[in-house]
Amino acid sequence: MPESNGRELTLGQAIREALAEELRRDSRVFVLGEDIAEAGHPFKVLTGLVDEFGPERVLDTPISEAGFTGVAVGAAMTGMRPVVDIMFGDFITLTMDQ
Length: 98
Prior knowledge:
Elements: H1 11-25, E1 29-33, H2 49-53, E2 58-60, H3 65-77, E3 81-85
Parallel strand pairs: 1-2, 1-3
């Protein structure tokens, strides 16, 4: 087996590290979705981000995919860099109008 020079990460760990890196790099980046701040996401992918970046940049939203996706579209139109977390793929179609 060939020697690996890189780290091994799960997909969830890689997502969390990438989001943290972007949140540190650009103050316009923020994350919003259901149960992502205090709970760290149902799959614990975002655990700890609210501790480092605060509830102003890691926002828990109501259960309204269409609503918070619309907020993200508006924020992007004003120069912000929103990252929307849709908890389950089954709910992505609820955001199509936005």
